[in-house]
Amino acid sequence: MNKQLELNGTRSTAFAKSFSGFWASSLIVRTDLLRQIGGYSADISFVEDRDLHFRLSLVTSIAYVNKQLIQTDRNPSPPGSTCRPWDKVEVQFRQQQHMYEKWLRMGPELLPDIRRIIRRNLGALHSHWANWYLENARYDEARQAVSNAVRYKTTFRTTVKWALTWLAPAFASKISPKTRPYRDWRSCVVNFDPGLTATQARGMSPANLSAESKSPLLKEHDCVS
């Protein structure tokens, strides 16, 4: 059964907020639209599917097919393997940062509300950078990252983190959240389908995700938090 996303002109807002909830291998799109947006970005090798989906949402509506279309192997890489460099946290963060900064350089097609969302996401990402640097005792880089976080997303928590990182980085490293891998796709599934609990999502396989999902609507969720 086909369902049109009821985003009422705000579909790009939903895609800007979080991972789009579907895999590129299940996407069907007109060739002329792909050419119009320039296809995949050659300079983005991680989250390139999210980048493509967001840019597509700026030029066309998006429909959701509530049935299984693909089966995806999400098993981790073998120990010592280098076939998936994007499994490294620093690669994930660097690519996401580049994607957000590239979006912010867009012209008038990027509405002010969407631009604010992207800035907040970029601020949150810099905060994650700071956590990772603190975790690895790279305090000078942590200070730079947390300063960028405050620049893009000024909140009480980021301000407190900024002060602690500059004045007592060793203490800040003890209380900051530990970095978790982005590739835990189940954290995105709960967000994609509001009817699923975290426990239910962990018990699902990629093969039955799209078949069991009840809602295509996207909610705000940062899978790198």
Question: Can you offer a commentary on this structure?
Answer:
- The protein has 225 residues and is mainly α.
- It folds into two domains: 2-69 and 181-212, no CATH class; 90-175, no CATH class.
- 50% of the residues lie in helices and 3% in strands.
- It has eleven helices and two strands.
- The protein has helices spanning 11-17, 31-37, 48-57, 89-104, 112-135, 139-152, 156-167, 169-175, 186-192, 198-202, 209-212, and strands spanning 2-4, 63-65.
- It has a two-stranded antiparallel ribbon.
- The longest helix has 24 residues, at 112-135.
- The chain starts with a strand and ends in a 13-residue tail after the last helix.
What attributes characterize this protein structure?
225 residues, mainly alpha, 50% helix, disordered C terminus
Poorly predicted ranges (pLDDT <50, ≥5 residues)?
1-9, 183-225
The percent range for strand residues is under 5%
**H-E order:** EHHHEHHHHHHHH
Strand order of the largest sheet: 1-2
| Major β-sheet annotation | 2 strands, antiparallel
The overall number of domains is 2
* Tertiary shape: globular
Helix content: 40-55%
Spatial extent as radius of gyration: 18 Å
Structural class: mainly alpha
What is the total tally of β strands? Answer: 2
> Could you report the average pLDDT, rounded to the nearest whole number?
76
Tally of contiguous helical segments: 11
Span from first to last CA?
A: 33 Å
